[in-house]
C-alpha cells in the first residue's frame, strides 16, 4: 500500500520516510516507529463509539511503551487529560490515569504529561443541546477553572 498526497510527497522530498502503522490497532512494525527519533509526541485516539476507555488506553499505552523502551527517544510528551493523576473510579479519565502510569515506567526518557481540560473534535454529539439551549452542557461547576 502506498501512502500518497502532496503533503506527504513534500515531506518525503525533505527526507521523511513514510511509515504505515497504528498504535490503536497494533498494525505495522511498531517496534521500528521511533527507531530514528529523539522526541516523541504521544496521543491516544478516543474511540467514543466503542466506549472502551478502560481497555483501549492501557492497550495503546503498552504499545507505546514497547515501541519506546528500546528506542533512542530521550523526551516524550504525552497528551493526557485533566484529572489523570487521580486513581480510582473516575469514569473515562481512568484510562488516562492508566496511560500515565504505564508511560511513567519508561526508562531513560524524560516524560512530560500535558493535561488538557477539554478536547474539541466533533460537535455533532452536542448538536441537540446546542439547538435547544444555545450551549454545550458540561459536568464541571461554573466556578471550576479548566486548562
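Q: What amino acid sequence fits the structure above?
A:
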Amino acid at each position: 500500500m502506498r501512502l500518497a498526497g502532496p503533503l506527504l510527497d513534500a515531506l518525503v522530498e525533505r527526507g521523511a520516510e513514510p511509515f504505515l502503522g497504528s498504535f490503536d490497532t497494533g498494525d505495522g512494525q511498531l517496534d521500528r516507529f521511533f527507531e530514528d527519533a529523539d522526541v516523541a509526541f504521544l496521543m491516544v485516539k478516543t474511540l467514543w463509539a466503542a466506549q472502551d476507555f478502560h481497555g483501549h488506553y492501557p492497550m495503546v499505552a503498552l504499545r507505546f511503551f514497547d515501541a519506546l523502551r528500546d528506542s533512542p527517544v530521550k523526551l516524550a510528551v504525552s497528551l493526557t487529560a485533566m484529572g489523570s493523576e487521580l486513581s480510582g473510579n473516575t469514569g473515562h479519565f481512568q484510562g488516562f490515569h492508566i496511560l500515565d502510569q504505564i508511560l511513567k515506567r519508561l526508562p531513560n526518557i524524560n516524560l512530560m504529561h500535558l493535561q488538557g481540560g477539554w478536547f474539541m473534535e466533533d460537535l455533532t454529539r452536542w448538536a441537540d443541546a446546542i439547538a435547544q439551549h444555545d450551549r454545550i452542557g458540561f459536568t464541571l461547576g461554573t466556578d471550576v477553572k479548566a486548562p
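Q: And what stands out in the fold?
A: Residues 53-69 form the longest helix (17 residues).
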